[in-house]
Amino acid sequence: MSAALQVTAFGLALLSTLFLLLATCTDCWMVNADDSLEVSHKCRGLWRECVTNMQDGVRTCDQYDSILADHPVKIVVTRTLMITADLLAGLALATLVLGLDCITFLKEDPCVKLKMCYGAGVILGAGSILGLIGSVWYAVDVYLERAMLVSYNIFLGVHYDFGWSCWLGMAGSTGCFVASVLLTCCLY
Fold it and tell me: Which keywords does UniProt give here (predicted)?
């Protein structure tokens, strides 16, 4: 039972870590949601803003200024939290691989392997919380920006919704949290 739970938690953690990495690297955290006839599709991300022409499918991306330049707080905080979550999830995966019962590393000392699984669960939990805070921070800031424009009756012709990268970050963080719970609470 313990080995099956470990492998299940490892599979979930691996998939969720991939989701977190994709969310950090992709550029569709915020997407335009104009109800009129669209001629272009605009996505804003943590690293660049891309516009896709809907008629011919040509995509152009504008990189943001240098990482050291002044950026909005939501981008800086989300970048920091997501990169930290990616690093912690990767460290937890490496620790978990060494702690799995089906791996012959430290086979003669099962107590150490169990502690490695617990440690991986704790690290994965910390990474998942940081990733969830980063994803939700960005989503809340997008919502507040849109609500502020509506409250002041400012209509710019386009408004933004959460993009698939934002949802991917939330899903990856939630999956890492569930794997963390499996490793720390259910592994006896």
Answer: Cell junction, Cell membrane, Membrane, Signal, Tight junction, Transmembrane, Transmembrane helix
